[in-house]
Design goal:
This protein has helices at 86-105, 162-177, 217-233, 287-298, 318-323, 337-349, 362-368, 387-396, 408-418, and strands at 2-9, 12-13, 19-23, 26-30, 38-46, 49-58, 126-133, 139-144, 151-153, 192-199, 206-212, 237-244, 256-261, 265-270, 273-278, 308-312, 329-334, 355-359, 375-378, 400-405, 422-430, 440-447. By secondary structure, the chain is of the alpha+beta class. It has 3 domains: 2-65, OB fold (Dihydrolipoamide Acetyltransferase, E2P) (Beta Barrel), CATH 2.40.50.140; 89-118 and 284-447, Vaccinia Virus protein VP39 (Rossmann fold, 3-Layer(aba) Sandwich), CATH 3.40.50.150; 126-269, OB fold (Dihydrolipoamide Acetyltransferase, E2P). The mean pLDDT is 95.
């Protein structure tokens, strides 16, 4: 390895919030550096390629720099923007989406300011914490360090909802007491891979899921003992399950799940509808902003009482059920079996008669159905949609499309497929992830006349 030291100035922020600096013809991405700041850095090269960039000394500070309240921030990889004033975080996200829309689909549009909420801490309703040995060789929950699979013990995450931290501390104590062996991803040994904890904002309920790397009954009995103590000490816990993931993979959850306490789900409310949340199904991680996200999108549409709406990539049906009182019929389409089954529960408990749920790949469903849809609402995963799906939408000539995206790169790509038949009517940004790089973008599309 060879190292060099330079004085650099940050000229921009990358899409991930890292400082961009240039030396001769080389572009460097530097953590914890804001636009206009100068720093002394050290570059390390390995086999002739840039391996690492380290800030040795920051020589000037941006007026927008703030001291992060989180003591783990500079080591933990959970947040990327906590050293930047929140108002500037919102501007960063606005510019990020604008630049990516131009870069990947040549769309140039003035974007409004991000819709936000004053609760920028203690908002996250779900955490997935890996288990590992701490420096005292005791099992412990925490997070991955920035840009690595090394662990960092965290006893007070500032963005997770209060009950998640309380439960994490109890589990830390219990897995140590019962000598639960953490999973080692290098040799695929050990028992406990992750603990997934979820909360509901309205009903104040919690769900806990232990992700195991073994079906050994002795380990299961230890987890049951932990369960018995947990439900005594934390009354908000309504369900506990074991998820079995024996594969050598970085995917958190496996396919098999066993409920060891409760019904396997908790409930939360959006508008006037209740929704079940299970261990494996998706639910927006910021409960305080989910109604704002959906209402912002719904208000961009011109829904008629005679409309049939397709809610594609519908998950547990939160979007489709929430808009069902405005239209004639809603069809939910979701490939994930667990989320589909939860959607059936949600239809039942809310007694909605004009919503049906389909367990199918969205592209396959739309290619094979004879149904006609007036409006499409789509909230795909980060990888976005498919060309085939969008081509089918265009051929069906849905009057309006509402695209909700957590990834502006795949959003921009997909919008380019819509260009021939649809025009952008409105764009809104909603900040569901304070202190993080991500932002929700809502795009309204109208069929060209």
């Amino acid at each position: 390895m060879t190292s060099k030291e330079f004085i650099v100035e940050c000229v921009a922020l990358s899409d991930e919030g890292r400082g961009i600096c240039r030396i001769d013809n080389e572009t460097l991405f530097v953590d914890n550096l804001l636009v206009g700041e100068k720093a002394k850095i050290k570059t390390t090269y390995k086999f002739g390629k840039l391996y690492n960039v380290e800030v040795l000394e920051r020589l000037s500070d941006s007026p927008y720099r703030v001291k992060p309240l989180c003591k783990y921030y500079f080591n933990c990889g959970g947040c990327q923007l906590m050293h930047l004033k929140y108002e500037e975080q919102l501007k960063f996200k606005q510019n990020k989406v604008k630049n990516l829309l131009h870069k990947f689909s040549k769309i140039d549009i003035d974007l409004p300011e991000c819709v936000t909420f004053n609760n920028i801490y203690k908002f996250r309703n779900k955490v997935s914490k890996p288990c590992f040995f701490n420096c005292n060789s005791a099992p412990c929950l925490g997070f991955y360090q920035k840009k690595s699979h090394d662990f960092i013990p965290v006893d007070n995450c500032l963005i997770e909802e209060e009950s998640l931290g309380i439960i994490s501390k109890e589990i830390n104590r219990l897995i140590k007491q019962y000598n639960i062996e953490p999973y080692n991803e290098k040799n695929n040994k050990g028992s406990l891979r992750f603990v997934v904890i979820k909360s509901s904002s309205l009903y104040k309920e919690n769900l806990v899921c232990f992700v195991l790397n073994t079906r050994d009954n002795k380990v299961k009995q230890q987890i049951i003992k932990i369960k018995n103590e947990l439900i005594k000490r934390v009354k908000s816990i309504k369900s506990i399950c074991i998820n079995y993931n024996l594969e050598k993979t970085n995917v958190i959850l496996g396919k098999d799940e066993e409920i060891i306490y409760g019904d396997g789900y908790i409930k939360d409310r959006i508008f006037n509808y209740d929704f079940v949340i299970s261990a494996s199904s998706f639910y927006q991680t910021n409960s305080y902003m989910v109604e704002t996200l959906y209402k912002t999108g719904f208000d961009m549409l011109n829904i008629k009482t005679t409309d049939t709406i397709l809610d594609a990539y519908s998950g547990t049906g939160t979007i489709g059920i929430s808009i069902s009182n405005r239209c004639k019929e809603v069809v939910l389409c979701e490939l994930n079996k667990s989320a589909y089954l939860d959607s059936l529960k949600n239809i039942e408990i809310n007694n909605v008669k004009n919503v049906i749920s389909i367990n199918d790949d969205c592209t396959e469903y739309l290619s094979n159905t004879n149904r006609k849809f007036d409006v499409l609402i789509m909230d795909p995963p980060r990888k976005g949609s498919t060309v085939k799906f969008i081509e089918k939408v265009c051929s069906m000539k849905c009057r309006e499309v509402l695209y909700i995206s957590c990834n502006p790169v795949t959003l921009a790509r997909d919008l380019s497929y819509f260009k021939q038949y649809y025009e952008i009517s409105k764009v809104k940004l909603v900040d569901m992830f304070p202190h993080g790089e991500h932002v929700e973008t809502i795009v309204g599309l109208a069929l060209k006349k």
